[in-house]
Specification:
The chain has 30 helices and 32 strands. It is α+β, with helices and mostly antiparallel strands. The strands form 8 sheets. Strands 13, 14, 15, 16, 17, 18 and 19 form a 7-stranded antiparallel sheet that branches. Strands 3-2-1-6-5-4 form a 6-stranded antiparallel sheet, sandwiched between helices.
Length: about 950
């Protein structure tokens, strides 16, 4: 019992975090608490329902739960213990007495095999709102005094939240009933007018599709009218019309989903003599003496799904004139409009009010905002469960993601007991193999909402339903579109077939239009914060043993390093002044081209590290002078990681269909980072087309997405880096001279490690500290290894071909294979001996990568996992992309080409990625790391 109060406190906090839309989630959490204290699984929760005047069962678990939920109790009754506890606010126990006669309680207990029940009142601010029941088949004590007190305190502590959600939920139910009433009233008004239009008409009716318990559609009478009350009563008594083939006259033209199957019903139908037809409702002709019928269909043009059928009857054989038929067709159109617009008006107003209220809260984080949007949409529409998936780029394509590989929610989902884990879904249409198709992926691909009325039928063919739970019967997906780009998809599910309607689609489209801009802004802020966090991580670490840090964490004992610091200090102020003008739309600024910096230096010298410190300086100024709570936009990419159209797409974006695999529109990084700064590494590898467009972009900020013809503009500062001799590349014709001059208006050369030897001792101490923190495991931070004086001397005297990367690799090997806490000269010599010192400089980097990859493979063979041997070192910049690539290539040679085989060989996963949710998450994380982070 000691841990139970702590678990109840967690449940209480969870309930406090729910909004008023989350009644069902609250009830599940309350039941979890009851189960925790009582140890029983059979639980009922009743809440006062003033719209029906009863105590409704809103939650039930255990045997016959669905049947139990269908039974309500009177609010006031002496025969029902539930009612008595509600009125008196006192706990009670009920024991089934088989000899006690046919009381309400005994009948209920007999029906549902209940031997004993413990009942606790749910009281909010002194007012009864419900009752909680704990049931058991066998008689005996259910709750002792301490448990009863603990449970009573827990229920009371969450009763206010429950009451708020109860009222909201019942208001929505009432609103739906009001809408239904309005629909009937509107339809009734129209059919009353119909019988006055033409003298021979004796009865008019509006039929609408409804779904029966078996999942098939039927036609129900929404409204009817006759000047003869007896005739109207006889007609209304006929009830619903079945649509199974051959069961009714209208079933010849409709399938059992109320979709027009016979094209003759796409136009009005005239039946001159009903007595000549076989009718399901024979009373129409035999008792009511109706003879002629004119049927006007109203349906959705795209799906042919019937909205309503308007019937016009006469009692004598009568042929309507062309004028009369035209009049009745216009009347039927008005009847449809009245039913649709008047009926749905209240709900649309409610949606507008709810979402507007939510937007005014201005939630600062994306995921909580999406959760609130989903909860409101689910409750307003009456869906059973739902999710919002975010569009992410993975494995060279676009995917919809609700939760990441660790199970962390990045989009939103509710009622998780119906959707325990939602894997990423690929965006695409008919070109995807059936196993990869989903309704959400199709909605994102087509940019159009879509409804699946019957999941079972969709699954029989090569449809677009991916089942997350076997009870889901129907589904609707609506894309969230901002600036003509799909950024998310709202998906709702129902346990009832054919639940979702065009009205529901329209409601979700309203939600899309109201929230899309805010969701896009939150996504952009989140991406920027993540990028800034990564940059800050690079410049934030400072070793306590070092005193030579300058400007962030640039180590600056040498003159060359100080020149880098001076460059950043000198250019940052005027560059920031230029950035400031972008927020003011100064016209003169746009005519002089965009600012750029060319960063030169050998491989591994620290060109990206220079950029990180420059950005950090500019971002500090941005937060100080422009936006204290914001971040200066930033994007980074490596030109060498792409080729051809993919390079152009990465920089400038593309339009859907621009090339194979371009399944949706995409912004390039120069557009995404508008108003900020972009780092382009390996600019010397840019292809001719990209060079031309970059030159044009730097001149006026204009660009065109691949496959598009619309001119767009963006303002960014471009920092380009290369290890190539661009003058030589220009002579060879590989690089444009005009682009070189444009990029090098400001130019800086990052010195090689051989040019700043006096910085090597402090650099070695700095990187050794970072590497130890990454690999130390449970060892305390205070045990960070140190470098002996003679070890530092060896490092200073070494000639480096790989610069900072080579130094870091030497230190990593020395750290792993050291003999004691201090790294000695012998440790460094062994690390150098395992390195490339004896090889020609041209092969040094390649050989180092080969040896590191072999070392990693050996560590994995000795028991380490992929995450320990590859993921963590790469994340800490301890190994390069080329090393990871070599590890993957060696694994493919050993295990086979398929990625699941590679993942198992490298111990990234342990089990079956198809059957085990946890292993599937690891596998997606593995692929995402390789394709998106490392960009292999």
């Amino acid at each position: 019992m000691d841990t139970i109060p702590a678990q109840l406190a967690q449940l209480r906090d969870r309930i406090a975090g729910y909004g008023k839309e989350n009644l069902e989630e609250m009830l599940h959490a309350v039941a979890e608490g009851v189960r925790l204290v009582s140890g029983q699984d059979r639980i009922r929760i009743y809440l006062e329902d003033l719209t029906r005047g009863v105590l409704s069962c809103v939650y039930a678990s255990g045997p016959l739960a669905d049947d139990i939920r269908a039974v309500s109790f009177p609010i006031i009754s002496r025969e029902a213990t539930v009612s008595s506890v509600f009125v008196t606010q006192y706990p009670a126990e009920f024991r089934h007495d088989q000899a006690g006669g046919s009381t309400f309680d005994n009948g209920f207990a007999e029906r549902f095999a209940i031997g004993i029940s413990s009942l606790l009142p749910v009281v909010s601010q002194g007012k009864s709102i419900g009752v909680t029941c704990i049931d058991r088949f066998q008689p005996g004590e259910l709750l002792r005094g301490k448990g009863k007190a603990l449970l009573g305190e827990f229920i009371t502590s969450v009763a206010d939240r429950l009451d708020s959600a109860r009222i909201y939920h019942q208001q929505l139910l009432l609103a739906r009933r009001v809408e239904e009433y309005k629909k009937r009233e509107a339809a009734s008004f129209m059919v009353q007018s119909a019988v006055r239009l033409i003298d021979k008409l004796v009865l008019a009716s509006v039929l609408v599709p409804v779904t029966g318990d078996d999942g098939t559609a039927r036609l129900a009478i929404l409204a009817s009218h006759s000047e003869d009350p007896k005739l109207k009563a006889q007609y209304d008594k006929q009830g619903e019309i079945e649509l199974r083939r051959g069961t009714s006259l209208i079933s010849r033209y409709l399938d059992d989903n109320a979709v027009i199957a016979d094209e003759r019903l796409l136009r009005p139908l005239f039946f001159p003599d009903l007595t000549q037809h076989s009718l399901q409702k024979k009373a129409l002709t035999e008792e009511m003496a109706l003879r002629s019928l004119y049927v006007v269909p109203r349906y959705e043009a795209s799906s042919r799904k019937v909205i309503c059928l308007v019937n016009y009857f006469s009692k004598e054989l009568y042929r309507f004139s062309d004028f009369e038929m035209g009049l009745l067709q216009t009347h039927a159109e008005m009847a449809e409009r009245a039913v649709n617009e008047i009926g749905g008006e209240h709900l649309e107003i409610r949606v507008l009010a709810e979402i507007t209220e939510l937007l005014q809260e201005r939630a600062e984080e994306l995921q909580p905002f999406l959760t609130k949007v989903l909860s409101k949409a689910t409750e307003l529409i009456g869906a059973d469960t739902g999710s919002i998936a975010i569009v992410e780029e993975r494995e060279g394509g676009k995917w919809l993601v609700v939760e990441d590989e660790e199970g962390t929610i990045v989009g939103a989902k509710n009622k998780a007991w119906l959707k325990k884990y939602i894997p990423p879904f690929r965006i695409g249409g008919g070109e995807l193999p059936p196993a990869e198709r989903s309704l959400t992926g199709y909605a994102a691909w087509s940019k159009q909402p879509r409804i699946i009325a019957h999941v079972a039928e969709e699954q029989q063919g090569e449809g677009f339903h991916r089942s997350m739970h076997e009870q889901i019967q129907s589904e609707i997906a609506v894309p969230v579109v901002c600036d003509d780009e799909v950024i998310a998809v709202i998906c709702l599910n129902s346990l009832k077939p054919a639940y979702f309607t065009e009205e529901h689609k329209r409601i979700l489209q309203i939600v899309d239009r109201l929230t899309s801009r805010h969701i896009s802004d939150l996504q952009r802020i989140e991406r920027l914060q993540n990028e800034v966090t990564r940059l800050k991580t690079d410049v934030a670490y400072k070793d306590p043993q070092i005193s030579s840090y300058r400007l962030g964490n640039i180590i600056g004992n040498s003159r060359k390093a100080q020149e880098i610091v001076d460059f950043i200090e000198t250019v940052s102020v005027p560059l920031f002044n230029r950035i400031t003008l972008w927020s003011k739309n100064v016209l003169q600024e746009a005519t002089i081209g965009l600012p750029s910096i060319l960063v030169l230096g050998q491989t591994g010298a620290g060109k990206e590290f220079f950029f990180n410190n420059l950005y950090n300086k500019l971002n500090e100024m941005y937060r100080e002078k422009l936006n204290p709570s914001g971040q200066l936009p930033v994007k980074k990419t490596n030109i060498a990681a792409y080729s051809g159209e993919l390079t152009y797409s990465e920089l400038f974006g593309h339009k859907k269909g621009a090339f194979t695999g371009a399944y949706s529109d995409r912004k390039g990084i120069l557009e995404e980072a508008a108003g900020g700064i972009v780092f382009l590494d390996e600019i010397g590898d840019a292809d001719p087309k990209t060079q031309v467009q970059l030159l044009r972009f730097l001149d006026n900020g204009g660009f065109v997405r691949l496959g598009d013809n619309q001119e767009r503009y963006s303002r960014v500062m471009l920092v380009a880096a290369t290890n190539k001799d661009l003058a030589e590349e220009i002579r060879k014709g590989n690089f444009r001279e005009d682009l070189y001059h444009r990029l090098s208006e400001l130019s800086v050369r990052v010195p090689s490690l051989n040019d700043r030897r006096e910085d090597i001792p402090d650099l070695a101490t700095h990187f050794l500290g970072k590497l130890y923190r990454t690999y130390r495991g449970d060892e305390p931070k205070e045990d960070t290894p140190t470098l002996a004086h003679d070890a530092k001397q060896i490092l200073m005297n070494h000639h480096y071909h790989g610069n900072i990367r080579e130094l870091r690799s030497i230190l990593l090997r020395a750290l792993f294979f050291r003999k004691g806490k201090m790294l000695t000269a012998d440790d460094i010599r062994r690390a150098l001996a395992a390195g490339m010192r004896e090889l020609p400089p041209a092969n040094a980097s390649q050989e180092l990568n080969e040896r590191l990859s072999l070392e990693i493979m050996q560590r994995i063979a000795n028991g380490e996992t992929f995450w320990e041997a590859v993921y963590e070192p790469y994340s800490a910049n301890a190994i390069s992309r080329d090393v990871v690539r070599l590890v993957i290539e060696r694994s493919k040679d050993a295990a086979g080409k398929a990625m699941p085989q590679v993942a198992r060989y490298l111990k990234a996963v342990n089990g079956d990625v198809e059957e085990n949710d946890e292993e599937r998450r690891k596998f997606f994380k593995f692929k995402n790391f390789l394709y998106k982070t490392v960009k292999i």
